[in-house]
Amino acid sequence: MTQASFSSLNALPPEQLSNLEALGYHTMTPVQAASLPAILAGSDVRAQAKTGSGKTAAFGLGVLARMDASRFSTQSLILCPTRELADQVANALRRLARHLPNVKVLTLCGGQPFNIQRDSLAHAPHIIVATPGRLLEHLAKGTVKLDELQTLVLDEADRMLDMGFSDDIDEVIRFSPQHRQTLLFSATWPAAIAAVSERVQRNPVTIDIDSVEALPAVEQRFFEVAGREKISLLQTLLSERQPASCVVFCNTRKACQEVCDALNASEQSALALHGDMEQRDRDQTLVRFANGSSRVLVATDVAARGLDIKALEMVINFELAWEPQVHVHRIGRTARAGEQGLAVSFCAPEEISRANALVDMLKLDIDWQTPPARRIVKPLEAEMATLCIDGGKKAKMRPGDVLGALTGDVGLSAADIGKIDVYPVHVYVAVRQALARKAYKQLQQGKIKGKSCRVRFLS
């Protein structure tokens, strides 16, 4: 099937089309092709589409097309369930808005100082990307005004309901103008989401991209294994395949931490991501996994929403998901943008009813495989290590400043340096493991932009 180009959308100006081309957006994904005409026409849209399908660009282009950058008022609001997803969406919007001068995109999430956010709101942002709880604090104190809101986006709406934000969404609606465009995106479509749509949208255009037939190519392998043998099987599979990146899904925070601890005890580098963690620890975990400082992330479903890993080799369901839709969402993470992926699922005897539900939904015959014989566990070492440098955006620190310090004063080659992530008060930089200690010591003794900086070695 021929994919439509963005130039077929007459509502997008030439400057935006040039920007999309520069960003590598050459043709529209299915969700973009299905939803953008209605979004650009001003209609309400409710769309079911999984993470990684291109929905952020779909609603982002609609938001920017309606925005008047000369008016300093909040014209669009995007609600997200987690800070990680909010940061990801905000960064994507800033890239999409590069052709527009002086566009202000602001994230409002918990775990960040309220006073700093309040000061940033002294001049109203054009676009706010927020989690519901922190946004309501600002609305209650009058630091955010939605009087001129044109577009409201509910992103990952199903996860917001899972996290108990239903009443918060209704409260945000109370502060919003009645005549607005409301866009609702959800990876799954339980009855509760349909009820939200009925409450907050007007005659929405309904789009369903996440049908079983539309799933990307994912090789699935199922193993029936007793619960007490799952750790051993996991270690064996990781030893055999040696994946560069793998997410292991668990259903509970307790199981998540136990699995992570067992992997690290066998020198298979792993990080845990779950709801009991402080926000700073969650940020650092996501950065370290994304930049290759750990090859395995053990996560719960709620915590993993907003995870943006473009080349995830493997997904392992350590425990089968409670709902078939969640299983579909999990396995789709390892086959983004047409890439092949591998999804492995462990099924204990007490989980067989969940496996049967998957058979009914996916309409496939599960080929139960015999678990491989247990072998000596091979270490799974990370290629990179992460250094945390105090400074960040508040200190006007840029990736080039850190790269210059590492290649100049420290003497590393550019090939030894990985991702550089700039946060408000920190910069995280990935350096090859063999050279990380050297870089750490040299940066402690040197300067960046003429200033001494505190440096920490994270892994």
Describe the structure.
The protein is of the alpha/beta class and 459 residues long. It folds into 3 domains: 6-210, 3-Layer(aba) Sandwich (Rossmann fold); 213-369, 3-Layer(aba) Sandwich (Rossmann fold), CATH 3.40.50.300; 384-457, Alpha-Beta Plaits. It contains 17 helices and 18 strands. The protein has helices spanning 14-23, 30-40, 55-66, 83-96, 114-120, 132-141, 157-162, 166-175, 191-200, 230-241, 253-265, 279-290, 301-304, 324-332, 352-362, 399-407, 433-445; strands spanning 45-48, 76-79, 105-108, 127-130, 151-154, 181-186, 205-208, 218-224, 246-249, 270-273, 296-299, 314-317, 341-347, 368-369, 384-390, 417-422, 426-432, 455-457. It has a 7-stranded parallel β-sheet, sandwiched between helices. The chain has a 7-stranded parallel β-sheet with strand order 10-11-9-12-13-8-14, sandwiched between helices. 42% of the residues are buried. One of its GO terms (molecular function) is RNA binding. It is an enzyme of class 3 (hydrolase). This is ATP-dependent RNA helicase DbpA.
